[in-house]
Amino acid sequence: MSIRCPICLDAFGGTCEELPRISQATALNCDQCGRFSVSGSLLATEAFNAMSEPLRAALSHRLRLAQNQSEFPVLTTTSFQDFLDSWKLTTPAEQIRNLIEIIGDHLVQTGVRLPRLTPAHCARIGSVNIQRIRQILDDAETGGWIRYRIHSGGVDRLDLTLTGWNEYEANKVGLRPGNYGFIAMKFGDPILEELCRDVIKPKLKAALNIDVVDLRDVSRAGVIDNLMREQIREAGFVLVDLTHDNYGAYWEAGYAEGLGKPVIYLCEQSKFDEFKTHFDTNHLTTVTWDRSDDEAFIAQLTATLKRSLGLFA
Ligand SMILES: [Zn+2]
Description:
alpha/beta; Rossmann fold; 3 domains; five-stranded mixed β-sheet; five-stranded parallel β-sheet; 14 helices; about 50% helix; globular; binds zinc ion
């Protein structure tokens, strides 16, 4: 059954289908936001129903970006509150990069120009409404990155210029932060594994709504070195634990530094106090951890990440 999407209100002219309920929650498939579920208690709250247009656009954008992750996005009063605490609008520069990526991906995958912008594309760009999309198209054309045709029914035949292709490729090789972090560390050390699993991943997710992945979260069939390179290239930042002076972790740090990624080094407190880390890295941003005080470690790591990524400034 078609309903009006409670998030985007079908702002870019799509439709929204109700799917079979998932454990008491309403499940929806929206042309703009993608697939997600909303709990009944959240649907009944004033804060949810009275969202402003920018807030709706930001949430729709976030849901759209979450579509390619393994988890089906679930909106509850808790996850919605996390969103309210951390949301921000996509900047015009980011919107233009998103537009270039959409057009470039389509051309690379199909060999032909993008026929038109769908509601899903509009959500991925991150603009507040259709007027802003028009402005972004205009700015991207004036900037010399894209070409398109305007007619009474809208815009079509979207294409990249040579300058646009250069920008597209620069973004693809990792000059642009993605929405997750990669952690490089020694595997098999129980203390470090526990820190990663019980503290770093859940706490950064709760504080910043950022997923932190390690190689094992993404390992699929294929050459592991290539997968790791891809994960680092696409990551928004890289955490590197140097407690064990792991060669692999140093290599991954160097690769990420070379790509211009924000790299934050981690080290167990007593090891850092006694031996420091390798001389090439010991003057770089290092957050030390001590399992007797996880709170202090996470507070410092969160603050460091916010500074490095310019988050919610
Ligand atoms: Zn929607």
